[in-house]
Amino acid sequence: MTTDAKQDASPSPPQARPRLLVVDDQPINIQALHRVFQADYEVCMATSGAQALEFCRHHRLPDVILLDVLMPGMDGLQVCRRLKADPLTADIPVIFVTGLTSPEEETAALEAGGVDFISKPVNPAVVRARVRTQLTIKAQSDHLRSLAFLDGLTGIANRRRFDEALATEWRSALRCGEPLALLMIDIDHFKRYNDHYGHQAGDACLQAVARTIERHAARPHDLAARYGGEEFVCLLAGSTLAGAQAKAEALRQAVADLRQAHADSPVAPHVTVSVGVAVQLPAPGGEADALLAAADAALYQAKHAGRDRCIT
Ligand code: GH3
Ligand code: MG
Ligand code: MG
Ligand code: MG
What we know:
Strand 5, helix 4 and strand 6 (116-119) form a beta-alpha-beta unit. This protein is of the alpha/beta class. It has a six-stranded parallel sheet, with helices on both faces. Strands 8-9-7-10-11 form a five-stranded mixed sheet, with helices on both faces. It has helices at residues 27-37, 49-58, 76-85, 103-111, 124-148, 159-176, 190-197, 199-215, 241-257, 288-304; strands at 3-4, 19-23, 42-46, 64-67, 94-98, 116-119, 180-187, 222-228, 231-237, 273-280, 310-311. The radius of gyration is 26 Å and the shape is elongated. It starts with a strand and ends with a strand. The protein binds 3'-deoxy-guanosine-5'-triphosphate and magnesium ion (3 copies). One magnesium ion (MG) is lined by residues 186-188, 190, 230. This is diguanylate cyclase.
């Protein structure tokens, strides 16, 4: 057997085989499933419910869990309910593999959050096919979820993704005592751009500006998103005020350097942006919305001070 629940904290290699976690109190049952899957899957194992939950906390998450029902200590139904209650593990498909076969037991397993129910002794072809089905469904739902977080026009993150990231990063910054920075970026006189060049050209301009903004949010915890219309945001976790200001200025300059013609702009003959910069150290009782409001207020000032500038 390749992987034990106590080993292997390594991150997922790029082309990793799907990872199965087999949970059963009887080693002989684990061995049987290991034989079925070892050629195509990375098979991990746990011999108790507690060990299975522990595994999920400390290792790369499995893609599917094969879970026994009758186990001493925590039974499979309890394990499944715990997995489903934790946002980290809630989306992992759980297939019950059990000697129990009554309709009542099958119903209880499905109600606990299992997606399938297979009787022991397992038929290798059947269990393989059922695992494959769950992996396909999971891949499809992951794909749909990723689409739900992308802006259709520019391909960068959308407002929904930003709202989630802001809430998450705010809590994390509060825990770590680190500052959180936000840039709010708005294209100058974009209504005139559309009026002059047409809406399609306006769309292409939004795409070019989005690409430029995204290039400036390159650190692992940076997030560039389209906030709406011709407004964008950059969330910069752990950035200092000076760091955020430098990034804002580099970004403003990079958009100007696109030299995207804007003949009807009173600011410059090319497309420019105004940027509002805000940095806050989250405090207990504070709200992430305050950071948004501060960046928005700074952006408003940048507009009134003549546009094509960054204001904190
Ligand atoms: P300001 O410098 O004060 O920001 O002026 P503005 O003209 O950029 O601001 P305003 O809010 O008056 O107009 C924003 C324009 O952005 C109006 C709207 O038609 C355009 N816009 C919003 N979303 C899209 C889009 O998806 N595609 C195109 N082409 N234009 C859009
Ligand atoms: Mg058992
Ligand atoms: Mg605007
Ligand atoms: Mg604008």
